[in-house]
Amino acid sequence: MSRFTNKVAIITGSSNGIGRATAIILAKDGAKVTITGRNAERLEETKQELLGAGISADNINSVAVDVTTSAGQDQLINSTIQKFGKLDILVNNAGTGVADPSGTTGISQNISIYDKTFELNVRSVIELTQKAKPHLIESKGEIVNVSSIGSGPQSHPDLPFYSMSKAAIDQFTRNIAIELAKKDVRVNSVNPGLVQTGIMQAMGAPTQISDKLYEYLGSNRDCIPIGRHGYPEDIANIIAFLADREASFYIVGQTIKADGGSTLVMAMNTHNLTDLLK
Ligand code: NDP
Fold first, then answer.
1. H or E element: which one contains 8?
2. Catalytic residue among 162, 214, 216, 250
3. Does the keyword Iron apply (predicted)?
4. Nearest-CA neighbor of 168 among 190, 191, 153, 147?
5. Domains of the chain listed by start with CATH number
6. CB distance 151 to ligand 1 below 6 Å
7. Is the CB of 89 under 6 A from ligand 1?
8. Is 241's pLDDT higher than 90?
9. Catalytic residue at 162?
10. Can you give the pTM of this predicted structure?
11. How far is the C-alpha of 169 from the C-alpha of 243, rounded, in Å?
């Protein structure tokens, strides 16, 4: 018996990045998984990785939908129940930073950027959670939301709407955790720091530019004290821990940072003040 044997999980945003790594870890540990994303080609890559890891096709439900649509959300839930008979774990991972096509950052971005960001990062999470709730109450299940260190309390002047959307998810996690804990459903979140995934491409950055960013920040211990940027598996392992009832049962409504220490750094402490203080 593996830790997720007989468990059924939906992992949104599993056609790439953190969601893909999560689907692979959960499935390798016995879960039946619904994998999803809009891009059918990348979703098929996830499926092939699962099959390549020895997962039976019977344990994979692959659904290409837009999670911001009501029909897409219904399809995710209904096809999971139809194929696997129940739902134990919902990983609300799909999300992105929406870039303003004009290149504008900060408060001058068009308000449509706010709408698009919140539609995916907040509204779709709320709606899918509402739809999954009766199934999770029945199974005494788990929800893991994927937030970000962008949620604060530090300021993120370039991407204000993204960071606000993740602050909303943190409070959503806390708000629903109490109500659902009383029904034996646990809700927690993981808040990643810089992780090398497809997110920069999704925001319009060419790969060589995003690689530069990962390399620069990852090798600068004033930015990431642990000495490297994150990989999807770093976060997927924490999602799996939070989805594992036996391992993390006493953690309820928490937002767990996984950022190599980035948010502990105060800018003034990154300067060597020894000479000044002589
Ligand atoms: P990726 O871009 O690699 O993956 C994002 C996933 O979300 C893809 O599978 C994408 O699928 C899916 N997705 C996006 N929009 C939609 C939509 N409308 N409908 C359905 N699926 C959608 O990024 P990450 O793995 O990095 O992102 C995962 C989560 O981690 C996000 O919530 C992100 O905010 C968070 N995060 C990431 C950090 C990082 O540094 N990478 C840091 C902090 C938080 P498709 O394109 O096929 O639709």
1. strand 8-11
2. 162
3. no
4. 147
5. 8-198+231-261 (3.40.50.720)
6. no
7. no
8. yes
9. yes
10. 0.97
11. 17
